[in-house]
Amino acid sequence: MDHSRLLDLLNLKFPGHIQVLIQADGKNIPSIEIPREQIKPVLDYLKSDPQIAMSFLTDLCGVHYPDQAGKELGVVYHLHSFVHNLRLRIKAFGPIDDPQFPSVTDLYAAANWMERETYDFFGIQFQGHPDLRRILNVDEMDYFPLRKEYPLEDRTRKDKDDRYFGRQGHEGVDFDKRIDRQ
Questions:
Q1: pTM of the prediction?
Q2: Where are the domains of the chain?
């Protein structure tokens, strides 16, 4: 089993749902994007199919791309097959106004705390999670700190500006209006 065979099997099982973002070239982990509705079926297939045997969830984390309309929030899964020594990165995205993703805690027990952390920092709600609540931040927090909704620099200083970090500057922005949160 190699990465090209793995991607072929995925395309056969889920035709039209697998978008290859990065091909494996010996240095890179292959990366694919799938619709969020396909997360459970794809991960279940990767884990339970004996040809693939991706039984280890290395990591699960959230991402926020505010400039991608309709795909602002995402979840990234890193899987590993010890049997074949293969790794795979899977990305799924959804709109920020509907941050619902299926929980994979029934497939990978390690996902429990990873999903809680992702919820805590990005506000992604994992449907079916057994105990989805904050894990690192205080319960009273009414925002999600890793979303790119707030300025990186002090708005009172003219020499500090978000443009230095690849984001729009803060000149003329009214920071007293808070972005509507879930």
A1: 0.83
A2: 3-158
Distance CA 46, CA 32 (A): 13
pLDDT the model gives residue 158: 65
d(CA 147, CA 168): 15
The count of residues in the chain is: 182
Q: Beta strand 86-94 with 31-33: parallel, antiparallel or unpaired?
A: parallel
pLDDT score at 155: 64
Nearest to 101 by CA among 60, 67, 69: 60
For 50, list phi and psi in degrees, rounded to 5: -65, -25
Q: How many whole angstroms separate alpha carbon 114 and alpha carbon 57? A: 10
Fold classification of 3-158 (topology level) = Beta Polymerase; domain 2 (3.30.460)
Q: Tokens 């009273």 identify what position?
A: 140
- Cβ neighbors of 96 (< 8 A, separation 6 or more) are 64, 66, 72, 73, 147
Q: What is the mean pLDDT of the chain?
A: 88
pLDDT in tens, 17-58: 999 998 877 778 999 999 999 999 999 999 999 999 999 999
In this structure, the dihedral spanned by the alpha carbons of residues 168, 143, 63 and 16, taken in order and rounded to 10 degrees, is -110
- Could you say which DSSP state residue 180 is in? P
Q: How many CA atoms lie within 13 A of 87 on its CB side?
A: 14
What's the CA gap between 22 and 31, in Å, rounded? 5
